Amino acid sequence: MQKTIIPVRIGVYDYKILFLSEREINDKYLEQRMSGFIDLVRKEININRDMDLSTQKETIIHEFLHGLFHEWGINLNLDIEKDMEEKIVTTLSKGIYEIETTGMLKAIFELMETGDK
Ligand SMILES: [Zn+2]
Fold first, then answer.
1. Residues 46 and 18 sit within 8 Å (Cβ to Cβ)
2. For the chain, what is the radius of gyration of the CA atoms?
3. I want to staple 84 with a disulfide (CB 3.0 to 4.6 A). Which of 46, 73, 80, 115 is the partner?
């Protein structure tokens, strides 16, 4: 996937998901080996397209959750403890990715809708 831009809504704002090379990610964020990051000012989720696809997908969820906390005005790092948002976002993004890729929720919902509980 080259230079694809995917629009996404976070809270009431329009964000863009950008797929950049690892070099572009490192130049923008000034940190090495990043799988991605969210730019809350430019409203962009930057994804390292040189990572494997499952890492890119989980990273989109991860950065999306950072965006949600920001847009909802929740600052876990100040309200609870330093790096708390990173811990919570990391846990949630892996869990959501697992639920989504295994089709677990879809299967549960389909069972509920057919009344076959
Ligand atoms: Zn993070």
1. yes
2. 16
3. 80
Residues lining ion ligand 1 (Cβ < 5 A) are: 86
| Cα 104 from Cα 76, distance rounded (Å) | 29
Which of 65, 73, 31, 28 has its CA nearest to residue 18? 28
Question: What is the whole-number distance in angstroms between the Cα of residue 36 and the centre of ligand 1?
Answer: 8
pLDDT tens digit string along 8-26? 999 999 999 999 999 999 8
Taking the C-alpha atoms of residue 116 and residue 29, their distance in angstroms, rounded to an integer, is: 50
At 80 the three-state DSSP class reads: coil
Give per-residue pLDDT as tens, 86-106.
Answer: 999 999 999 999 988 888 888
All structural domains of the chain = 5-113 (1.10.10)
The first and second tokens of residue 87, run together, are 């811990």
CA distance 10 to 111: 30
Beta 44-48 vs 36-39: how paired, if at all?
Answer: antiparallel
**55 CA from centroid of ligand 1 (Å):** 13
